[in-house]
């Protein structure tokens, strides 16, 4: 799997947009960018994924640069419940390859 | 759907005892994954199955660990004999594409 680089921690004020960056400069053409998060004492939760186009769902938006070497997860209106560790993972979809979790970004939403 | 179900949620056992963790995947999912999470090593994949067949067990730490999936709706992870260093949270996940995780089993070996 291609490796990713994320900041260790970030803070964001409640109600503001939280922008979480991820670098994946060695991503292959067939690899997708996945985001998961893990709220304390819970199992990881799928958020969103994309290949090269920007994606949006009810939880977040994913912006992938044109060269696909980096991406940003956007939580548009952060709430206290969004405090969690956020993992950026790249993997190929075919064969449902395993996920390799790094250390992620610990996002703290400040009241 | 109830999501991925794991049991027990907490397990405390003494060193040397056998431990069995259980997982019921989401109906219709054809992949099942077992992970272990510790502060030191983070979240590690132990083994995964596709259509009940083990595909990759390279993450299983040693022969004391074994996993089975006798049918599409049930899997077990067994540790025999257990050791204090096995203390961790064990997660089961299932998927078609995106992985959905269970709540985990917190194992403490004293």
Strand fraction of chain B equals: over 45%
Strand order, largest beta sheet of chain A: 1-9-8-3-4
Radius of gyration of chain A: 13 Å
Helical stretch count of chain B?
Answer: 0
Count the E strands of chain A.
9
Low-confidence stretches of chain B: none
| Structural class assignment of chain B | mainly beta
Structural class of chain A: mainly beta
Q: What is the H/E order of chain B? A: EEEEEEEEEEE
What does this 3D model show about the protein?
The complex is a heterodimer of chains A (111) and B (110). Chain A has no helices and nine strands. By secondary structure, chain A is mostly beta strands. Chain A has a five-stranded mixed β-sheet, with no helix packed on it. A four-stranded antiparallel β-sheet of chain A has the order 2-7-6-5, with no helix packed on it. In chain A, strand 5 and strand 6 form a beta hairpin. The model of chain A has no long low-confidence stretch (mean pLDDT 92). Chain B contains no helices and eleven strands. In chain B, the strands form two sheets. In chain B, strands 2, 4, 5, 6, 9, 10 and 11 form a seven-stranded mixed β-sheet that branches. Chain B has a four-stranded antiparallel β-sheet with strand order 1-3-8-7, with no helix packed on it. In chain B, strand 4 (31-38) and strand 5 form a beta hairpin. The mean pLDDT of chain B is 95.
Task: Summarize this structure briefly.
By secondary structure, chain A is mainly β. Chain A is built from no helices and 9 strands.
Give a quick set of tags describing it.
heterodimer; A: 111 residues; mainly beta; five-stranded mixed beta sheet; B: 110 residues; seven-stranded mixed beta sheet; four-stranded antiparallel beta sheet; 57% strand
Secondary structure blueprint with pairings:
The complex is a heterodimer of chains A (111) and B (110).
Chain A: E1 9-13, E2 18-23, E3 31-38, E4 45-50, E5 55-56, E6 61-64, E7 70-75, E8 84-92, E9 105-110
Parallel strand pairs in A: 1-9
Antiparallel strand pairs in A: 2-7, 3-4, 3-8, 5-6, 6-7, 8-9
Chain B: E1 5-7, E2 10-13, E3 19-24, E4 31-38, E5 42-50, E6 53-56, E7 65-71, E8 74-79, E9 88-95, E10 99-101, E11 105-109
Parallel strand pairs in B: 2-11
Antiparallel strand pairs in B: 1-3, 3-8, 4-5, 4-9, 5-6, 7-8, 9-10, 9-11
